[in-house]
# Entry
Amino acid sequence: MKASDLFVKALEAEGVRCVFGLPGEENLDLLESMRGSSVRFVVTRHEQAAGFMAATYGRLTGRAGVCLATLGPGATNLVTAAAYAQLGGMPMVMITGQKPIKAGKQGHFQIIDVVGMMRPITKSTRTLVSADHIPSAVREAFRIAEQERPGATHLELPEDIARESTTGEPLTPGTHRRPVADEASIALAVETIASARRPLLMIGAGANRKLTSELLRVFVDRLGIPFFSTQMGKGVVDESHPLWMGTAAMSDGDYVHRAIEASDCIINVGHDVIEKPPFVMRDHRRKVVHLNFSSAEVDPVYFPQVEVTGDIANAVWRIAEGVGPRTHWDFAPFERARSGLEAQLAQGSAEDRFPIHPARLVAEVRRAMPDDGVVCLDNGMYKLWFARYYRCRRPNTLLLDNALATMGAGLPSAIAAKLVHPRRKVLSVCGDGGFMMNSQELETAVRLRLDLTVVVVRDDGYGMIRWKQGEMGLPDFGMTLGNPDFVRYAEAYGAQGHRPASAAEFGTTLARCLESGGVHVIDLPIDYSGNAHALLAGAEEGVGR
# Structure
């Protein structure tokens, strides 16, 4: 068969259902092979958006998402998305075209060293130099992308290789089981936790796996140990649970950080070095038990005394069995911190000002979204408010990026989430700056006939950087934007635009948009003047140790 046909059959063997991307001259053979296959080609308006969609597909399914671009500018436009997947631990396979490598090239038109460019930001990158290499190369790209820790891989398919004839056959993915932690490390973890007085469970991004989530809920219920999460660990355990302590979102003055200060043992499950630990170990006042697929990467503030390396779910289950409930644990300081957090959350959600207060925005979104609804955040000041105030009741229902923290991913991520979960409510929340970086994908959402709502949080500037600028005592400079009329802008793409005039009207509008079909854009002005008070609160109300 033709090599491009074999390539697509290899994708089918990996269970690939869709490929996101843009066409180019150098991948026309591959496109033609996809046309007659079971693989759906989702045409996007920008390669960066295609990459964000593929990464989000991988994040939600655990199977590598796939994106396609041509050579040169097509490939360079994937760079941000590659870093997004790589730093965020999202499995993704990128495919790019290239000029013929066996025949003479047309000078250097559009030719750059794409493999060399991708090497620092992927787990694996290679050029295919023979059609017979396709089955093993595709299998290896998916294996590496999906194995712990997940990330991005890249394959370059030159057009002359795509046209070769081959007798190769796709490789069938094999079964794989991760090794489990040894008995000695489990026993040491059990002893450390059992002898503690105030143990506290921390849930990181690496714990966001289906079986791990289920067993962590059992762990919390059986042992009664309070828990908190990092931003990318939100929702692994239901945050309506009475032992939830909040999210480590930003400051040392936060309520959850006061609980951390009161602890003498932190059980750190699925910690990812991309998200710095919300505690420091210089004073040696507490012990840290590290549970992860790999050993800890030691740095000046993180050097756990106990490491349990292996399958996380298995380790969580065995430790819970070994520790059992303890009568000497004292969680009173945690309970005081949690009471302070609850009072703060309740106060913020009642704010009635307009432009809307960020806490009220989060409260209205939480009221409108069902438990399994997916909220996809872009990157901006509002992300910190959602991290703290939005209670996730299921895993992967608040998709935020605290790794690369790139702007422009919110809308493409929501499109991918809707394709993965067509029956769920999906909402994208973007700042005006981030939204405009990939707002052209509104056309993609409309063309795909998706039911999707986008809230554009408008402060007519780069709000997070403006706040940092002010905190540094610097004058406001270089932060102001001009914006289009977002209602008319949405209508130009065939979507529906809305502009509520009060916080209450926003709640009503949001609920109506989520219940009706089609693509909706809500233009929502926001007031960030209360950032410092709310996001830094808690330090003055010391909860004691």
Remarks:
- The domain at 183-335 is CATH 3.40.50.1220 (Rossmann fold).
- The chain is about 40% helix and 15% strand.
- The CA atoms of residues 14 and 427 lie 29 Å apart.
